[in-house]
């Protein structure tokens, strides 16, 4: 895979982390339980996206995969 594709996947990963943090901040600030429930669901979807992107990066970047294995991840 061209390095520009891996760069794009890593940038997408950064975006997912930012979204997770933003939703969590909103969850922590909001009192309405229904809104918290919906935002928590969306936050958890973003966590799934993060996992999916990580899986792709691990598959496409052998060095990265070796580092994950070294750390037993």
Number of domains: 1
Unreliable stretches: none
The largest sheet is: none
Tally of individual helices: 3
Concise structural overview:
With about 70 residues, the chain is mostly helical. It contains three helices and no strands.
Write a structural description.
- With 73 residues, this protein is mostly helical.
- The chain has one domain.
- The protein is 88% helix and 0% strand.
- The protein is built from 3 helices and no strands.
- The chain starts with a helix and ends with a helix.
Features:
mainly alpha, single chain, 73 residues
Helix and strand arrangement:
Elements: H1 3-29, H2 33-60, H3 62-70
Helix pairs in contact: 1-2, 2-3
């Amino acid at each position: 895979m061209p390095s520009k594709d891996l760069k794009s996947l890593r940038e997408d990963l950064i975006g997912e982390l930012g979204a997770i943090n933003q939703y969590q901040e909103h969850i922590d600030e909001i009192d309405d339980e229904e809104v918290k429930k919906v935002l928590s669901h969306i936050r958890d979807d973003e966590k799934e996206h993060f996992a999916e992107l990580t899986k792709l990066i691990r598959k496409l970047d052998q060095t990265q995969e070796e580092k994950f294995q070294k750390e037993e991840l």
